[in-house]
Design brief:
Largest sheet: 4 strands, antiparallel
Helix content: 25-40%
Structural class: alpha+beta
Strand content: 25-35%
Strand order of the largest sheet: 2-3-1-4
Number of strands: 4
Oligomer: single chain
Amino acid sequence: MKYIFEVKIREGHTAEEYADAWVRASELIQQAPGALGTELHRKIGEPDRLIAIAHWASKEQRDAMEAVHDPQIDAIIKSAAPFVEIRSLGAYEEPEWVVMPAIPRHHT
């Protein structure tokens, strides 16, 4: 499953500043059972907006990690809070279907 967030960088700060905090927190979070990786993507044409995606094996495992409240993770998140606005876009199950383009066959 995926947890997706929109991140807006406040004026006077950079996406790189947030990315530093994101990576430091993610390195700790990824030690939790069920953690499957994280991604940050810049919005095209808006370098002050990012989409953050955290991949988890299950909602229950993610909820268990959240219930622990690791003080190191909390401190990292609090350190980034003054220069970002974060809006949860929600939790999403893995897709029930995926439509992939067909690979064209070359005739010889």
